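User: Let's play a game. I give you a shape written as tokens, and you guess the letters that built it. Ready? Here's round one.
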């Protein structure tokens, strides 16, 4: 029904077909544009300044995720939905379609705004909760988003076809099998996220190793369906969340929290270089401060034992003597205990492993005082640099498979020996001939 005032206003164009509905649509669009401009350029600017001046954090999160900016799109849509029936001489079908589309658009905008609101909640949690890295909520918020957009889709479809949303929801029961198939990964990932969080198996910032997924690095993000791992070569590996439950992975968090990082490496000693120390050699090694007490203690212990053995009439072959490998092992143990880069509160030992074709493994088992990668590698390298250089002091050699230079040197010596024998044979053969002449 058109009121008399609007009828008189549109009287000059009454002779043109479709003039009145076109002018009405233009007026409606103009009002919607003005409302959108006032909302975005005036109202939002004021709210932004108020939020910037406020000492609270939640308003900064809302503005950072542009929640209100997304909600501002509702204003022109609502004006069009409420104003389209007022356009004169517009076909009822067009009115219904435009109104339904506008209302469906409002439902979509509300769902998107609520999604951004959930992102703002996650930002607040991550930025201000001390346990955010231990108990991430991003996966749960994504589940809420899925439910939110499913409901928004139902409302939009119901609005467009002018049916009750409950009627559409009742049809989802028959589609449950299809929905379970479509959202299989999401459901598995949701269960995995609950188990990971409940058992504190994984946190953002943890270093994990998962060879089956080619993942070896720090966890940088935990979402509903995926966990992102930044490898040490700076590549990103995306691991399905449910894989972390169905397959095994190694979490290095325990090492990082313990305050020590393990060194477990062996020196391969050439077994042909292992022997007893002569008294002169033992006296010479006494000048090494780390083992002088050890050698003096061994000297007294062995002399007492050997004297009692010889006094009993035993053969001298049964006496005990100090070996170079045992003395070197004592030196390594004392060297580690005096090293400032080694954690002295954790397990520390130097042991021999079973000998093999590559020599006798002398294993160092200890923990560095730093868990960071670079200091750990520097400490480990310094220790082995020193020990390898000290081996000749104890008359020991490292085992090393022969290389090209070794083979070339052996062949050169062999060739020199053959030439010398040939020269000797020539001299012996020609000398008698000269005497005959």
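Assistant: Ready! My guess for every position:
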């Amino acid at each position: 029904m058109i009121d008399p005032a609007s009828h008189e206003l549109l009287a000059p164009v009454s002779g043109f077909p479709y003039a009145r509905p076109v002018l009405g649509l233009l007026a409606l669009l103009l009002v919607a544009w003005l409302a959108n401009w006032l909302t975005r350029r005036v109202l939002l600017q004021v709210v932004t300044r108020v939020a910037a001046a406020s000492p609270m954090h939640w308003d900064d999160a809302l503005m950072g995720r542009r929640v209100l900016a997304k909600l501002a799109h509702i204003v022109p849509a609502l004006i069009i939905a409420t104003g389209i029936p007022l356009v004169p001489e517009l076909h009822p079908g067009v009115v219904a379609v435009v109104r339904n589309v506008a209302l469906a658009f409002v439902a979509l905008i509300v769902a998107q705004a609520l999604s951004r609101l959930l992102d703002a909640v996650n930002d607040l949690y991550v930025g201000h909760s001390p346990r955010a890295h231990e108990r991430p909520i991003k996966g749960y918020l994504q589940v809420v988003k899925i439910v939110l957009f499913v409901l928004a889709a139902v409302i939009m479809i119901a609005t467009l076809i002018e049916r009750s949303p409950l009627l559409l929801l009742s049809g989802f029961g028959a589609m449950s099998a299809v929905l379970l198939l479509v959202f299989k990964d999401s459901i598995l990932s949701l269960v995995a996220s609950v188990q990971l969080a409940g058992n504190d198996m994984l946190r953002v910032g943890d270093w994990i190793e998962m060879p089956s997924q080619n993942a070896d690095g720090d966890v940088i993000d935990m979402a509903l369906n995926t966990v992102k791992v930044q490898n040490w070569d700076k590549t990103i590996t995306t691991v399905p969340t449910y894989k972390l439950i169905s397959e095994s992975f190694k979490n290095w968090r325990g090492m990082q929290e313990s305050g020590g990082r393990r060194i477990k490496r062996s020196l391969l000693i050439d077994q042909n270089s292992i022997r007893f120390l002569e008294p002169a050699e033992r006296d010479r090694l006494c000048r090494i401060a780390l083992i002088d007490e050890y050698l003096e203690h061994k000297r007294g212990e062995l002399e007492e034992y050997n004297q009692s053995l010889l006094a009993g009439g035993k053969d001298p072959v049964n006496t005990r003597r100090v070996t170079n490998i045992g003395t070197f092992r004592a030196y390594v143990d004392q060297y580690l205990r005096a090293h400032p880069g080694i954690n002295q509160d954790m397990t520390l030992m130097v042991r021999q492993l079973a000998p093999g074709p590559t020599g006798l493994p002398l294993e160092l088992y200890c923990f560095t005082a730093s868990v960071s990668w670079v200091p750990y590698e520097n400490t480990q390298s310094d220790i082995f640099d020193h020990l390898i250089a000290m081996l000749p002091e104890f008359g020991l050699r490292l085992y090393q498979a022969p290389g090209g230079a070794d083979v070339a040197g052996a062949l050169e010596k062999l060739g020199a020996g053959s030439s010398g024998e040939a020269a000797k044979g020539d001299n012996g053969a020609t000398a008698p001939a000269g005497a005959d002449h």
